[in-house]
Amino acid sequence: MGRVVAELGRPETPAETAARKAESSRIYRGSQTMRNLFAAIIATLAIVAVIVLMVPRGDIERPSDVDVAAIAERVERDIKHPVVVPPVSADWRVNSAKLVSGAPTTWEIIYAPGDGQGFMRVSQALEADGGWVSRELPTGKLGEVLTLGDVEWQSYTFADPSKAGNISYALSTVAGTDQVLIFGSSPEKLMQETATQLAPQIDKLKEAAE
Q1: Rg of the chain over CA atoms, in angstroms?
Q2: How far apart are CA 119 and CA 110, in angstroms?
């Protein structure tokens, strides 16, 4: 005898039993789908939370400080030749300081001065030939000759910095058998001040070559 349904007051027919079971199955499957959806949402939120916790918060740390003086000391020992190190402000970031092999070999320091004042590179070409500067600054135009400290520097200007690697100004000088080049997108005054601070080291390079 079929199941008695209170609402019907009689046993349900086989068709009604089948319909009831089908509806129960549909409701069960729907509930399972919702549970799975909620579980997926919770799992996703948990993953997002982990990622957020892994990301450093607070002030963004500056890149690891590059100890230019220490690197320069090692370079000098290796090549048995002095290299220049500008005495720059403590708030300047050093992007790199390295010896670059080539013709000629160069000692290069790349600075990012404080307060977003562009970038500035100081390059010292060891035993440089006369065409080194023009190869480094192919679009540079000769400017005035400046005496900074007690050293004469040739200045260069650029009509379109976007076509010159964002270089807007440069200074070069002969330092004994080497040549020193200061260039970049920093203000002219800032690069001139750096050249002035390098004067004692330029003099030593000249003396060493005599």
Answers
A1: 36
A2: 7
